[in-house]
Amino acid sequence: MSNIRSTYLFSLALAIAVLLGCFGCDNNKNLPTDGNNNDSVDSLPEENIFGFPLNDYIIERDTIKRGDNLSKILARHDFDAVEIAKTAEKVRDSFDYKKLRPGKVLTLLKSKTTPSTLDILVYEPDNMGFNVINFKDSTYAYTVNYPVTYTEKTVAGEISGSLSESLQREGLDPGLGTHLSNAFAWSVDFFKFRRGDRFAVTVREKYINDTIYVGIDEILGAYFNYQGKEVYGFSHSKPDSKTTEFFDENGKQMKTMFLKAPLKYFRITSKFTKSRFHPVQKRWKAHNGTDYAAPHGTPIMATAAGKVIEAGYTAGNGNYVKIRHNATYTTQYLHMSKILVKRGQTVQQGQTIGRVGSTGLATGPHVCYRFWKNGVQVDPLKQNLPTSQAMDKNDLPAYLEKIKPIKQHIDEALMDKFPN
């Protein structure tokens, strides 16, 4: 799982580097009290930055600019073309300098005896470690990763306001809300929480040096009491796959064949009906779709995996995409401002296929979502769509055993938070 934490400011990363870069550094700086000891201050262990003695270097910083690459950066520090080419050749197997990101800060260490010469270049791509290019003697590069520890944490709370706000009130990263909404999108309508709905979640948190919080490594399990319905979900990776999916307490996959809607954020402005007054044509006619209003440019998602069988324009539909999902189901998405797929292309569930617009017969930005079952247009909101698949029976016993303590922690957290 991807990390759920924004990167820290340079000052924090620098503080970490000083803390962890003191390879063998003795922090006791008090001189011995023995009167016969004549050691000078110079004999004390020196502080280090990224493993290099601070007293030996002048420290400078250089912010990576848009369009920068290793060549441009080194040229700013008086490297000629030959030196740049040699450096790139020597470090390419140890340092992926093609992934330098604009806005990141480079730390430059220059010798106090020759301040015009760059001895050390340090790049911190994130708060998990740093890359070093050492130009002294023979140029070489290496990477240092900070020691990471993991701690499991279970928290319960009540929904009040948004899910992110509710998580934050309980001391959790508010960014966790996005990941929970993605995992439970097929079971919980996150726009229809009511005051008093409850949640609980068990996460594995990541720390540097046991003390500095980095982010959430994985959601192990979660619970929602949603409009009177209890929903449990637990993460699980299949033995032959690195992909993590969510399953309920019985081993049933939470992800279903179709998303509830082609937009993440929306409001329904017109439902499927056999008689509607058309706002443009000014006459009564059938409306064989569901209109979801959203701002111009909002991503439109394929509600299920399938193959694009049409992608084009008509006077009524505007820009549209039609997808065949299998022999039974087909969907269509109308009035796009932009089409992002081509006919014949295979798409995955949740993939962005276009953007909301008002092309064709439309009075404002929205997507008209149309749904076919066995060749007949039907109301998708009233269909008994294919349900989740059960876990492979060979994997189920191990899964049930794994989630048992997680579910227990969730239930205990709920009882502690809501004793009555």
Automatic annotation (TrEMBL):
- Keyword tags: Hydrolase, Metal-binding, Metalloprotease, Protease, Signal, Zinc
Q: What GO cellular-component annotations does this UniProt entry give?
A: cell envelope
Q: Where is the Csd3-like second N-terminal domain?
A: 150-273
Cell compartments where the protein resides? Cell envelope
Write the signal peptide boundaries: 1-24
Name the domain of life this protein comes from: Bacteria
- Pfam families the UniProt entry points to: Csd3_N2, Peptidase_M23
M23ase beta-sheet core domain mapped to chain residues: 286-380
Q: SUPFAM superfamilies given for it?
A: Duplicated hybrid motif (SSF51261)
Q: Which cofactor does it need?
A: Zn(2+)
Chief site of localization:
other
Q: Which PROSITE patterns match?
A: PROKAR_LIPOPROTEIN (PS51257)
Has the keyword Zinc been applied to this entry? yes
Disulfide bond recorded as keyword: no
- The protein depicted here goes by the name Peptidase M23
Organism of origin: Avrilella dinanensis
